[in-house]
Design goal:
Layout lengths: L5 H6 L5 E5 L2 H4 L3 H5 L8 H14 L4 E5 H6 L1 H12 L14 H5 L26 H15 L7
Parallel strand pairs: 1-2
Length: about 150
């Protein structure tokens, strides 16, 4: 039976899902495409809202994390993640960008995985976007996320 929403798929799955969300301005690469909702996996706001809603509806199966919180308190956030997954806490913290598959592999559309990684610095968008561009994205995100309870 095909699923129409993430919530339907999770309901029938024995798996746990962890979703780490970044500030839209720190995650985008092409400004106009982002603002118009043209992204590889659909509009950013639809993507994060599906995981946000799933985490509210099924908190034992879906964990929604914010990247800036992980950067600010890595140990504490990893501890929460380990508890959520029912795994012992490990001090080893591999970097996704350093994994061999992410250095040499390609996505389904032929884009090198390495092109999906940025520096990982919270607020680094200010080095790439003008204040006007940042404000435009803030307004789009506010409109798209209103009434969801999800704030940036």
């Amino acid at each position: 039976m095909p699923y129409h929403t993430l919530q339907e798929a999770i309901k029938d799955s024995p798996c746990k899902v962890v979703y780490i969300c970044r500030d839209a301005k720190d995650s985008l690469v092409m400004f106009e495409s982002f603002c118009s909702g043209v992204c590889l996996f659909g509009p950013f706001w639809d993507h994060i809202l599906s995981y946000w809603k799933a985490s509210l509806e099924n908190p034992k199966r879906v964990m929604f994390m914010r990247y800036d919180e992980v950067k600010a308190d890595t140990r504490g956030q990893l501890k929460k993640l380990a508890e959520f997954l029912g795994c012992p806490f490990s001090e080893e913290e591999p970097s996704l960008g350093s994994l061999e598959v992410n250095k040499t592999g390609k996505s389904i559309n032929g884009i090198d995985y390495k092109n999906h990684f940025r520096k990982g610095i919270v607020g680094d968008w200010k080095n790439y976007l003008t204040p006007e561009m940042g404000n435009k994205i803030d307004m789009i995100m506010e409109e798209k996320l209103k009434y969801s309870g999800l704030k940036f």
